[in-house]
Specification:
Blueprint (H helix, E strand, L loop, with lengths): L6 H13 L2 H8 L3 H15 L4 E3 L4 E3 L1 H26 L5 E7 H11 L2 H7 L2 E7 L12 E5 L7 E7 L2 E6 L14 H5 L2 E4 L3 H10 L9 E4 L2 H9 L5 E4 L4 H6 L3 E2 L5 E2 L4 E6 L6 H27 L2
Parallel strand pairs: 3-4, 3-5, 8-9
Antiparallel strand pairs: 1-2, 5-13, 6-13, 7-10, 7-11, 7-12
Helix pairs in contact: 1-2, 1-3, 1-4, 2-3, 5-9
Length: 306
């Protein structure tokens, strides 16, 4: 017979450990603060050790609590993943792809043609999130994340290494405008996602001062920056993955300089199993293939560049 702590107590402890407070845990679990506090207190009594240091507005894991939080978190994650797959029907040909929203809009959606979906022959369930997954992926079969992450039940594979460069709508330039003209950078509005990092690097590389920019426009999602650039609202920073569709249709043009390697890359998270189901394997193989095509297109463009 298994001697396990109360499941509700473990869920309360896990939520409090992640939230750093009993109040936050109570809101996540939709129970009272008193219920969370009681569950954790009973769990500590059962284990014979303090799991948290209590403060006025927050709690901090003790050394023993941190070790136990890792064990509990991994165990609950495995349960969530397994239960989710059973609810969906593990043997069915549905593949859940967890992907960050910017990449989904700018890179994945243009690739999902009728022919591609027919060839994959799966029920593709695409789930987007505003930020990369950092912990539980629920019942996802595959995930694409910005930056390397460690998620229970998944192994991480390097996927895409973007090259960053400035882009703009061709409608922004008059007849005879040379894209090499540095005046383009100071006479047009600069479109940003979150911060000034890439434009600051670009202006430094070009020997320009960011203070001379004509104006700034900020968004908190990179696909909105690209959409604003397509609409002719200014210059945006793009890369060879997320801009591929816009560049192919001519909605955006790539300015010839500067070209910079990204600070990180995209990773593919694959279930850590000896053998994948055939539907999951097909989607994984397709993702790897289109990532390879992105790298090949980059090399071809580099060869053609004068």
């Amino acid at each position: 017979m298994r001697r396990l702590p109360n499941l509700n107590a473990l869920r309360a402890f896990d939520a409090a450990a992640r939230q750093g407070s009993f109040v936050g845990a109570a809101e996540e679990l939709r129970v009272s603060h008193a219920a969370v506090s009681r569950h954790v207190r009973n769990l500590e009594a059962e284990l014979g050790t303090a799991l948290f240091e209590r403060h006025a507005r927050h709690v901090v894991l003790t050394g023993e609590g941190a070790l136990f939080a890792k064990t509990v978190g991994e165990s609950l994650s495995s349960l969530e993943i397994g239960a989710g797959r059973l609810r969906r029907g593990f043997v069915r040909s549905t593949v859940v792809l967890d992907i960050e929203s910017d990449l989904a809009v700018s890179w994945l959606m243009p690739l999902l043609t009728e022919d591609v979906l027919d060839a994959l022959n799966v029920h593709l369930d695409v789930r987007v999130r505003p930020d990369p997954p950092r912990s539980v992926l629920g019942d996802a079969d595959l995930a694409v994340s910005w930056g390397a992450v460690q998620c229970t039940g998944f192994k991480t594979e390097r996927f895409l290494d973007p090259i960053v460069f400035p882009v703009a709508s061709p409608a922004l330039f008059g007849a005879g405008t040379k894209l090499e003209d540095l005046g383009i950078f100071t006479s047009n509005r600069l479109i940003h996602e979150r911060g000034l990092y890439w434009w600051r690097r670009s202006f430094e590389t070009l020997g320009l001062s960011l203070d001379d920019a004509a104006g700034h426009l900020f968004f908190n999602r990179s696909h909105l920056c690209l959409e604003a650039a397509v609409r002719g609202l200014g210059l945006a920073m793009g890369d060879d993955a997320t801009c591929a569709a816009h560049l192919a249709t001519g909605a955006l043009v790539r300015l010839p300089q500067p070209e910079m390697p990204s600070r990180d890359g995209y990773y593919l998270l694959v279930p850590d199993r000896t053998q994948l189901s055939r539907p999951v394997q097909r989607v994984r193989d397709w993702l790897i293939e289109v990532a390879h095509q992105t790298r090949y297109s980059r090399k071809s463009a580099a060869i053609k560049r004068p």
